[in-house]
Write a structure and sequence with these properties.
Distance between the termini: 13 Å
Strand content: 15-25%
Family: Belongs to the LDH2/MDH2 oxidoreductase family.
Shape: globular
Keywords: Oxidoreductase
Number of strands: 12
Protein name: Malate/lactate/ureidoglycolate dehydrogenase
Oligomer: single chain
Helix content: 40-55%
Structural class: alpha+beta
Organism: Roseomonas elaeocarpi
Number of helices: 12
Radius of gyration: 20 Å
Order of helices and strands: EHHHEEHEHEEEHEEHEHHEHHEH
Pfam families: Ldh_2
Largest sheet: 7 strands, mixed
Length: 355
Amino acid sequence: MLITRNALEDFARRIFAAAGSGEDEAATVAADLVEANLKGHDSHGVGLIPGYLKAREGGHLAAGAHASFLRDDGPFGVADGGGGFGQVIGREVTDWAVRRAKETGIAVVAIRNCHHLGRIGAFGERAAAAGMVSLFFVNVRIGMTFYVAPHGGRDGRLQTNPVCITVPTGADKPPLVLDFATSAIAMGKVRVAYNAKKPVPGPVLIDAEGEPTTDPAVLFGPGVGTGGPHGALLPFGGHKGFGLSLMCEVLAGALGGGGANTSAECAAQGIRNNLLGFVIDPARLGDVATIQEEVAAVIEHVKASPTLPGGEVLVAGEPERRTMQQRLAGGIPVDDGTWAGIVAAAASVGVAPPG
């Protein structure tokens, strides 16, 4: 099915409001999820609604929580998310980091004890809109079930642990936005494939025996997450993606203080995300106009490369902007399985789907 941005966002907002969120929180989370769909990141879009409501019912997601700063010391900040919506906590902490970077030149911030942060690129874009460069490293904790195998391993030992780097390119110009999971594909893309009853593109998955597979049921089929055998995602780029994922675990989990995904309390908390971020004022490093000219020259240089048949050189953030234009014009696609799950979740809190 295809649905307009406004209709989908209003539906999501009404669901979260009925589930206990205030109007501002419901609107923020709904807008974030729908924007992820608009930009082609369906893994981080409205398909998350049933899981969020389930987490809320289970006491693992706290409506109305805000970032509580445990440390606010010069360029350093440490915030506790209180188990709240990451879309809210992440924005609050990003805004703090932008303000502090304007004062001190750089902000180093850690987020602990937050529910799912959502699309990390949203925070990078927020920093870039304020003229700041940003780097975010995230680790993911989901009980004691692990969904990403280390390079050379046969079972899950890590999670999808995303990385995001954004660089502003000048007024009225789109920023560079590099935002990706360190697994071969995002966990949510496997969920989307499972709901749509489609295979995932190989080779990105292994089954419970460590053999390559394209069947998303190895991660989302009956019994997965209950302690039984299950498959795992592979890291992207072999040892390189594995190494970056490991660094996310160490930087966001250990250095940031929120805990790695081996912590004993993981099982009792449901999903938790921790983040270690760096927000930098480029004006402290040189003339901003000159920096932007250099960035523009680099972009022009790489895009001038002769292309392969049917190919095109796109820089970080460009595919998302194109997809957003297409989906704003033609509607957001939602597969039948995902839509059924959202409608069922909505019904559980007394909300009817759009007519």
